[in-house]
Specification:
Elements lengths: L20 H10 L20 H11 L4 E2 L2 H6 L6 H8 L9 E3 L4 H14 L1 E6 L18 E6 L6 E5 L4 E5 L4 H9 L3 E2 L12 H7 L6 H4 L2 H4 E8 L2 E5 L12 H4 L8 E8 L1 E2 L3 E9 L2 H13 L6 E5 L1 H9 L12 E9 L2 H14 L3 E4 L1 H8 L4 H10 L2 E11 L3 H16 L4 E6 L6 E11 L4 H18 L15 H23 L13
Parallel strand pairs: 2-4, 3-4
Antiparallel strand pairs: 1-2, 5-6, 6-10, 7-11, 8-9, 8-10, 12-14, 12-15, 13-14, 13-17, 16-18, 17-18
Helix pairs in contact: 2-5, 11-13, 16-17
The structure holds flavin-adenine dinucleotide.
Flavin-adenine dinucleotide (FAD) binds next to strand 3, helix 7 and strand 10.
Length: about 525
């Protein structure tokens, strides 16, 4: 059975924790704390869809596949951004779907889309529910109702082609289930975003996700070979060859389409043999510029360590302070974690190490690299513990070219600090690198104001304006959702907007899919 996340927090409800004492002391020193409990026993808005309207769906999919119980609707309300959590904690469930529909096949999905067109019902595809950009909070005005199209029953490994190194995965498979099924064939996908434990294969494709091992394995969109999609206008099956010149690559229109163009039901992915060797290590650099320059040199030398993750001075300070080794080893500056997986880890370490040392890095050994691996899925639980004590924590991200990295970093950092005030901690890391540039991923922690939502939106607006003004992207891997929509038109221009609207009109003429998400 699929593990359900806590309705008001991240992750496994059994793993919810209070703020660890060591972290509490640190937070007291920098930000301050005060109890901010969540609302309990919150009633949902009534289901607005008449029972007769759902009868045809029950008849076609089975009664178990159409659910209107409050408990299920609550778990399909919005995603897991900090604003989503703040609303859930405050008892605001206004975006709850009227019903949750669980198709068991591609054909079931097609039936739901036809039904939704006939009855003018908005449909929100739901993968793992880990969206951080409001991608699951579609607009419902103008519709007879809104259903969450929950893909959790589409959870099978459909086929493996060992010779071509591809596998076909159903869209609702969560990260761990997909890795376990592939491991039984000696294979791995190698996509490990921080949301890995709950996010789904279809969600990765629909948002163009990028995982922690992107330096070596690439982004999720790089791994996609083929797609099966149910659209309101009919089926779309793409990817009949590893590459082709048959016009523009329509797979690119589906990747990142956030449920607005169709429902992805199967994804064919590139896979690779499970690594026989793994090693993680850390390096220190004098400052963020020196560390970023070293990463650039590694990647431009054609080297591909599996993980490359550089924290700026502030994030390095917080990471080290939260471990037992506070200042113990005299590490100043910035911490770089490097991971290697494959058949010749020793050779890769030597080659990458030579570049890092040549760029002024100091090798720190394995301990901190391994500590990062051990704790890499833990931070989202800590966010909840911090929200419990009145600390606003949220992340945002962008990407730019190497030559503009410093300018974009300074602009976004200053915008966040100015908006959130002097007591706010603004941290940054680089963990996705390309020959031409990199992403910048910011985390903020600030004392919660009386209206933390308004406080965050003001900071988010300032940071987003700074990104676009500096010529960077509004998102490197979190996607557009509803939250980034105001900036998308500035990034892609009026012709880009017209192209998106044209595709939408072709595949979803009655605009039932995810209204208000992605399309300006
Ligand atoms: C704590 C945390 C850490 C995160 N870390 C990362 C990270 O390291 N890297 C990263 O890239 N992202 C990260 N994210 C963001 C999020 O996990 C990704 O966007 C992920 O790809 C979403 O997958 P999902 O299955 O949860 O999709 P959902 O949240 O269910 O949906 C996301 C969007 O895609 C649509 N959608 C979902 N499934 C389908 C489908 N089958 N067909 C069509 N549309 C669909 C939805 O309607 C929605 O608009 C993180 C989020 C959280 C909360």
């Amino acid at each position: 059975m699929t593990l359900e996340m806590h309705a008001q927090r991240w992750g496994d409800p059994a793993a919810a924790e209070t703020l660890p004492e060591s972290t509490r002391a640190l937070v007291e020193a920098f930000v301050g704390t005060r109890p901010t409990p969540s609302a309990t026993d919150v009633a949902l808005p009534p289901n607005g869809l008449a029972a007769e309207m759902l009868d045809p769906l029950r008849a076609a999919l089975g009664a178990d596949a159409v659910l209107t119980e409050d408990g299920v609707r609550r778990l399909r309300t919005r995603g897991k951004s900090t604003p989503d959590l703040l609303r859930a904690r405050a008892g605001d469930l206004a975006d709850a779907p009227d019903a949750v529909v669980r198709p068991g096949s591609h054909d079931d999905v097609a039936i739901v889309l036809q039904w939704a067109q006939e009855h003018r019902v908005a449909v929100v595809p739901f993968g793992g529910g880990t969206s951080v950009t409001g991608g699951l909070a579609a607009r419902r005005e103008g519709y007879a109702g809104l259903v969450s199209l929950d893909l959790l029953r589409l959870d099978a490994l459909v086929a493996v082609d060992q010779e071509s190194r591809t596998a076909v995965l159903q869209a609702g498979m969560r990260g761990p289930a997909a890795e376990a099924a592939l491991a039984a064939h000696g294979l791995t996908l190698g996509h490990f975003p921080q949301s890995f434990e709950f996010a789904s294969i279809g969600g990765f494709a629909a948002t163009r996700s990028s995982g922690q091992a992107s330096a070596g394995f690439g982004r999720f969109d790089d791994m996609v070979v083929g797609l099966r999609v149910a659209t309101p206008a009919g089926d779309l099956v793409l990817g009949s060859a590893p590459a082709n010149a048959a016009g523009p690559d329509l797979r690119e229109l589906v990747l990142g389409s956030e449920g607005a163009f169709g429902v992805i039901t199967e994804v064919t992915v590139r896979v690779r043999p499970v690594a026989t060797q793994k090693a993680y290590e850390a390096w220190a650099f004098a400052d963020f510029d020196a560390g970023a320059d070293a990463m650039r040199r590694v990647i431009q030398a054609g080297l591909r360590p599996t993980v490359l993750r550089l924290s700026d001075e502030a994030e390095t300070m917080v990471n080290l302070a939260s471990q037992t080794a506070i200042g113990g080893e005299g590490v100043a500056g910035c911490l770089l974690v490097v991971g290697f997986e494959g058949a010749d880890v020793a050779g890769a370490r030597e080659a990458v190490g030579a570049v890092l040392a040549g760029a002024g890095g100091t090798a720190l050994g394995a301990e901190r690299g391994e500590a990062w691996v051990a704790g890499r899925f833990h931070a989202p639980y800590l966010r909840d513990s911090l929200l419990d004590v009145g600390v606003l924590v949220e992340t945002l991200e962008t990407a730019t070219f190497w030559s503009r990295r410093r300018e974009v970093y300074d602009a976004v950092r200053s915008a966040l600090q100015a908006s959130l005030g002097e007591k706010a901690l603004v941290l940054c890391h680089i963990s996705h690198v390309y020959e031409t540039g990199c992403s910048l991923y910011f985390t903020v922690a600030a004392p919660q104001a009386d209206d933390p939502l308004a406080q965050w939106w003001a900071a988010k607006r300032a940071a987003s304006d700074a990104m676009i003004d500096a010529g960077a992207t509004i998102t490197h891997h979190h996607a557009v959702g509803t939250d980034h929509l105001p900036w998308l038109a500035r990034e892609i221009g009026p012709v880009g907007v017209a192209m998106l609207r044209g595709v939408k009109a072709a595949v979803d003429p009655l605009l039932i899919l995810n209204p208000g998400v992605l399309i300006p």
